[in-house]
Amino acid sequence: MTLTMNTELILETQGLTKRLGGKPVVNGVNLQIGRGDIYGFLGPNGAGKTTTIRMLLGLARPTNGAIRIFGKDIRKERLAILRKVGSLVEYPSYYGHLNAVENLEAVRRLLPGVPKSRIDEVLSIVRLTNDARRAVKGYSLGMKQRLGIATALLGDPELLILDEPTNGLDPAGIQEIRELIKSLPKTSGVTILISSHLLSEVEQMATRVGIIAKGNLIYQDSIERLREQAQGRIRLGVSDPESAWQMLLSYGYPAEWDRSKLTVGQTDDRTVASIVSRLVNHHFQVYRVEEEHASLESIFLEMTGSEGSL
Amino acid sequence: MLLRILSSELLKIRRKLIWFLVVLGPLGAVGLQIVNYGLRWDYLVRPEKASELWSDAIQSVESLALPALLIGLAIIASMTAGIEHQMNAWKMTLALPVKKRHVFAGKFLLTSLLLLVSCVLLAIFTYIFGSVLNSMIGLHGPVPFGELLRASFYPYLAAMPLIALQSWLSVTMHNQAVPLTVGIVGMIVTMFGAYRFPDWVPYKWPALVNTWPHPLYAVGAGLALGSIVLLLGMGEFVRKDVK
Question: Which of A35, A94, A107, B74 gives the lowest tally of CB atoms within 10 Å of its CB?
Fold first, then answer.
């Protein structure tokens, strides 16, 4: 569960807890995000993702626990931290009566040391240059969300915190935002925390994953480690599977029979070969030997419990 | 830092009709008096009262400017805060490297600044109105600048607790119906109750009537209580979680 020692921790929480009306919404969460990570922060709706992110940005006070970003305590050095953090929290914030340039300028005036030319830069990163002079209230949701990302990038942050940046977008919009986010670390070397309720959305870009359910962080490791858990099983199509299952168990193979299919958890070639020869020796007819892959999504649903699928 | 916030705030109120209201208030007060004087010229401008012409003009404008100020401060406080409420921009602004109390102070300063501009315009419009009135009957006496400036700025200074209160309510509450109702009721209380309340009631102060025979009482008390309300609001805003 811990990062390798040579990675510098950009963000770390210890026992982060938030109670609302006595009920813990976030419960003892220990996040660890290293420099250069794209950290996928996953969980079903209402699991505590947004509340956690609000605490990371100093928008909400933790009931308990500590937050350290860039090695600094958020309670003591909030301004110094926020100077190097860009954020987009939930649905987009914008001033609808202003155009994109004015929106960014209103924010730029609060960011010390950011030149005016940076506004054109971030607009071209999110490809809004052509619509920059239109009132933002006429933008599509995808464009508003891109403007939100441009706002987050304005201060040239070292840490980018994006809360559900693809929420409510159509597939094309999701794709667009995903490509945009994937391209950022290459161009600016930024560390990204991105939250989502869909694993499929972040699995293609995340390097590390944290999964939160009912306020508890139930998983935190590299995406590769999560993929290993999604390893396949061998499915066997045989005559009389129930007695074949008992036979395989008697030889010590990890076979499973759920009254519809017979599967074996071990998938290396030698095991599969020996299983097949045992079956043949015991006069079972073998129709099919096929590999079954559990999707990351099903593992995610299993971890987060039933509310994930509702 | 406050200057940066204020410059950002001034940018945000573009195209919001707020500046229109800032001009409309004083213009309306003077404009209505122009109509009044036009209709009742013979009664209001009598030769035997020529020496009081300036005072009458200033006081008549002031009687309309006061309700305009009281309702205007509630509307402007609500509009400046509404810019953030409307599109949930508080979370964006407060995740920037700014102190929360400065953000709160910025909204209050913006509202007071806009109202100050209104008062300056009021003084200018009243001066023009009075001068034209005097020259129309051939008078070219000295302009009572002291009285003109007192009438234009004292109610504003005495209304500081109300500006701070409306600013606080508008910033804390998402639903702007509440602060606007408080503001409208406040205006009615001042307009109809100013003479009935004891001196310590803040809603009385902008009317500049108190038993202690100097309007500076209302100004001093207004500035003092205004600062206290501002600090209380700031304290609450800093402690509260951002929605």
Answer: A35
In a domain, A298, yes or no: no
Q: Which residues of A touch B96 (CB under 8 A)?
A: 82, 107, 110-111
As for the ipTM of the complex, it is 0.91
pLDDT, tens digit (0-9, with 9 covering 90-100), for A26-43 = 999 999 999 989 999 999
Q: Report the phi/psi class of residue A191: left, alpha or beta, with left for phi > 0 and alpha for psi in -120 to 50.
A: beta
* Domain spans of chain B, in order of start: 2-239
Q: Which structural domain range is residue A84 located in?
A: 9-228
What is each CA distance from A110 to A114, A161, B237, in whole angstroms?
A: 9, 18, 19
Q: A32-34 and A9-20 as β-strands: parallel, antiparallel, unpaired?
A: antiparallel
Q: Do A143 and A34 share a domain, yes or no?
A: yes
Q: How many Å apart are CA A98 and CA A88, to the nearest integer?
A: 19
User: Which one-letter DSSP state was computed for residue A259?
Assistant: S
CB B12 to CB A60 under 8 A?
no
Over the stretch B77-135, which tens digit does the pLDDT of each residue have? 999 999 999 988 999 999 999 999 999 999 999 999 999 999 999 999 999 999 999 99
What are A44's two structure tokens? 């079903």
Give the distance between the most distant pair of CA atoms in chain B: 66
Residue A203 pLDDT grade (very low, low, confident, very high; cuts 50, 70, 90): confident
User: A8 falls in which pLDDT band (50, 70, 90)?
Assistant: confident
Q: How many domains are contained in chain A?
A: 2
